[in-house]
Amino acid sequence: MAIKGNLANPRKFQKDQLKIYAVLIPITLIMVLPIVYIVNHAFKPLEELFAYPPKFFVTNPSFTNFFKLVSATASSTVPFSRYLFNSIFVTVCVLGFTLMFTTMAAFALSKMDFKGKKILSTMNDIGLYFVAIALQIPRYLIVDKLGMHDTYIAHILPIVVLPVGLLLLKQFVDGVPSALIEAAHIDGAGEFKTYTSIILPLVKPAMATVSILMFQEVWNNTETSSMYIDTDAFKTFAFYMQTLSSNTNSVAGQGLAAAATLIMFIPNVVLFITMQSRVMSTMATSGIK
Amino acid sequence: MKSDKLRRGVTPYLFVLPYFALFILFVAVPVVIAIALSFTNFNAIQFPDFVGIKNYIDLFLQDEVFIRYVIPNTIVFAVIVGPGGYVLSFLLAWALSQITRGPRTVLALIIYSPSMTAGTTMTVIWKVLFSGDQLGYINNILMQLGIITEPIIFLQSKTWLLPVMIIVALWSSMGVGFLSMLAGLLNIDPSLYEAAHIDGIRNRVQEMFYITIPSIKPQMLFGAIMAIVNAFKQSAIGVQLSGSNPTPNYAGQLMVNHISDYGFTRYEMGYACAVSVVLLVIIWVFSKGARKLFKED
User: Fold this and answer.
1) Within 10 A of A107 (CB to CB), how many other CB atoms are there?
2) Contact A276/A250 with Cβ under 8 angstroms?
């Protein structure tokens, strides 16, 4: 008996998929239009920003807004490049720590036997719900009491822990055959050697996924700057952008804010596009039972 | 032999130590502190004094802003953005799984992209679109269509701020949960569908309820929990969109904003912690509900 259509993940285009497209395409358009608008807005010269009626697309694209963005900070004490440097530095540190600490914990929770393992896993699962923003006051007090206030450490340590990251990585490590690890042990490899030579190379897709999620958390983070940092020179690009966006009431300010948005947005997209197939293979092992 | 056992005994703890040390410091301890401080009067300078459940009584019986605005706003926002965003992301993931690979990848990227830039970046986009004068794009469209004659100051408006917040939050709610469900859908064993067709399943809707959803329960639950977390994570956008805390006429005031208003503007940190505890309980209840719905039996 021939089975017709209705199978998920079809290999070929069939006519009845048109119904699906008829719904999907309008929704996708609605999703993408705001982004297209802001990209166009960023390249609009002043007279187009003031044009009435406002136009969706830019006619004479120019880099005016971007130059203004850079020079807007020239007069202030903190140059544009300093904010950008802070953001890049903080992002790299957080990613490094997160990947190292999370893969180590995932390996132990998935492949080693020890007392308290269940409790730690459960704690992490509950940690999923404890949104940082709900805990802003105690976190502020802890950062303050530990003397991290107004240092780079306050940008980094409080956000290294990403419970969803550990969850995804642990599930991915669960998929690594235990026989591989036993074989390594027989060859005389200790746990640390097993971690670096077996686990790390095999969980690369999951690490890519966690990097992306973490990147989104830290690159776009404004809370650490506004709550833990007083010195302007230590604040991040995302925070600087937020101060710009409070100027969206003026039309010229909107152009600057749009340009800054674009600079914030592009790294996220590029990172996701380059890693999307690895992300999907990690997601295939995700889930909560 | 003995030393080998000993080494193995300590090694796992060394591996989990860095992660869980930070976890305890920045996730677990804050929860304990929030609970402890919620029973005190604390202004961040003097030592907190114990006041019993006074903060909770004040919160539910005296705090007019909390009762009249914060609670209703939070419920409306959380119910639409949480479950609403969840159903939307499942349906979109499902629809994407019904088409071929090439177009699917492109459309999935577009649908996922708004959720990549949480917080400020995306609020700027909407601040520009909803700009309150006739140069604001949405105002202009509505005026061209003749629906309104005067531009609406959306982001300072009593009526419009909350709806705008919901639109923005829904727009960016297709995140990790969406990707997880999509991946789950694509990995369902095709023979399940074949068997179902022999057993007489005829259309996509039947297929969805009898085969698809039961097959991806773990991803459905993961998606549900991510949707709940996301709804509460995003709930500060009212302040970002309107540019002030409290939001104009408390129109977009949610619990998260109430916490920072009391904690960092008025320095009533004990009281603010009581609000935090109530918020955590609400998130907890929501997630229990999700677990009940998709529990593997």
Assistant:
1) 25
2) no
| Mutation to test the A interface, candidates B98, B258, B269, most A Cβ within 10 Å | B98
The whole-number pLDDT of residue A234 equals: 93
Whether B103 has a pLDDT exceeding 70, the answer reads yes
Contact assignment for A32 to B44 by CB distance below 8 Å: no
Average of pLDDT values for B115-122? 75
Residues of chain A with pLDDT under 50: 1-5
Q: Is residue B237 part of a domain?
A: yes
φ, ψ dihedrals at A276, nearest 5° = -65, -35
- What percent of chain B shows pLDDT beyond 70? 96
Report d(CA B26, CA B23) in Å as an integer.
Answer: 5
Residues spanned by the domain of B157? 30-294
Would you tell me which residues 27-66 of chain A have a C-beta closer than 8 angstroms to some C-beta of chain B? 27-28, 31-32, 34-35, 37-38, 41, 49-50, 52-54, 56
pTM over 0.80: yes
Q: Could B218 and A289 be called an inter-chain contact, meaning their C-beta atoms sit closer than 8 Å?
A: yes
Whole-angstrom Cα distance, residue B181 to residue B112? 12
Record: contact A31-B110, CB cut-off 8 A: yes
Length of chain B: 297
Closest CA to A154 of A242, A240, A230, A88: A230
- CATH code where residue B148 lies: 1.10.3720.10
What total number of domains does chain B contain?
Answer: 1
- A242 or B182: whose pLDDT is higher? B182
pLDDT at B1 over 50: no
pLDDT above 60 for B14:
yes
Q: How far is A75 from chain B (nearest CA, A)?
A: 24
Sign of dihedral through CA atoms B55, B57, B60, B62?
negative
Instruction: Assign 3-class secondary structure to B211-278.
Output: HHHHHCHHHHHHHHHHHHHHHHHHHHHHHHHHCCCCCHHHCCCCHHHHHHHHHHHCCCHHHHHHHHHH
Enumerate domains of chain A plus CATH numbers. 17-66 (no CATH), 79-283 (1.10.3720.10)
Residues 212-241 of A with CB under 8 A from B: 213, 216-217, 220-222, 227, 238, 241
